[in-house]
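Chain A, query sequence.
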Amino acid sequence: DYHIDNQWYAGTCTNHAIIHGGEIALKKVLGYQPRLAKLFSYFWRTNPTVGSNPWEIADISFNKKGMLPFNECPTPERVTDAQVEELQKNRELYKPKTIIDGYEVKYFAVDKNPDSIATVLSQGDPVQISIYGTTVEWAKVFVDVLNKFLVLFGAAIRHSILAIPLGDHTDEDDTQRITIIDSAWFGGYKVRHLSKEFLIDRIYIQPI
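Chain A, predicted structure.
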């Protein structure tokens, strides 16, 4: 029951995952999920040529620059990376504001072990995860390892996603899974269920 913004054709998956996590954290306080700007933190990356680093995006969003309501820095429909680069030239026009006075969104390192991730989820907190996979694997709602020989630099899918609170579960086939939200809407799916085996094999950056 979460609002899941679409990243369209821009490489903003890390920003979406981190900010979606911030929205969920704020939902605990507000009673509803606010819609926050996903592009604002993207504008302030220090090394755009290599993508977004989850730790830097969290630091920008929750410590240095702050968060901005979506309607004050909206993501254009069907936006591309080229359009984002044009918008970024005017990043100084976007002024962050305090979403809630005195409330701080905290983030911390989570071990790559799926059991550690499940523990955080069971406590009602989201976890940002960076994974890789094949297009065939990621085209499914229930995601499993189909190519046991895949390595990171040969992967068609390198993606940042958000595991949602209380999303750890065991399916009817007795497979342990976590539920994630996906800002790419790949295949039309906004929600997927990743197996424990997939998580063990395919997480490549420490989750937060």
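The two ends are 22 Å apart (CA to CA). The longest strand covers residues 157-170.
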